[in-house]
Write a structure and sequence with these properties.
221 residues; alpha+beta; DNA Binding (I), subunit A; 2 domains; five-stranded mixed β-sheet; four-stranded mixed β-sheet; 18% helix; 21% strand
Length: 221
Amino acid sequence: MDTVTGKETNTGVVASGRSVMRTRVLMLNRSYLPIHVTSVRRAFSLLYCGIAKVVNEQYQTIDFERWSALRVPLDENSVGLVGRAIRIPRVILLVRYDRVPRRQVRFSRVNIYARDKSTCQYCGKRLPRHQLNLDHVIPRSRGGTSRWDNVVCSCVPCNRRKGGRTPQEARMQLLQKPYKPTWTPFIQEDGGGVRHREWLPFLPAVEASGRGAVAPEDGAP
């Protein structure tokens, strides 16, 4: 399968290889439950091998042969094949996979930023990650530990203002009480939690709203 540089064709918008590789595909198990987000390359591999099928807007499942023969809508991205283009799938279904893996969200700087949406939990400013750091609500010098319920995202000025005090002592109020998020399979892309409209029917309401979109600790199919 050869991708071609972006250009308009009578079969749709053919995307460049680089932009295609940045596109993500939602993966469902056989019960239509979301279990992972994978790359376009891997999605096409699973489709071609018959391990998965595309789920379209009418919730129909389509195998690779039929999908590759469909006309590409003008407003959809595609990749080039020999003499034709194939639409990029947004949702695929694993035809023989029923299990939903048990996973724990890893406690990490990246996942704290994701949980708090890169927003300082004291002043409410949303900033680039290089302008943020982590704050222990109960300072470590006072016995505070590095746990989900004691660490929040903060900007540098608020972190300095709070110093080694508690929020009450510093007369600063948290936007929300820190919590351990429930596991979600959706991988952040460039810190933005990129999703496609085709994903929304398969996402729990809390995921569709963006809360708790953090990286899982282990892999998926």
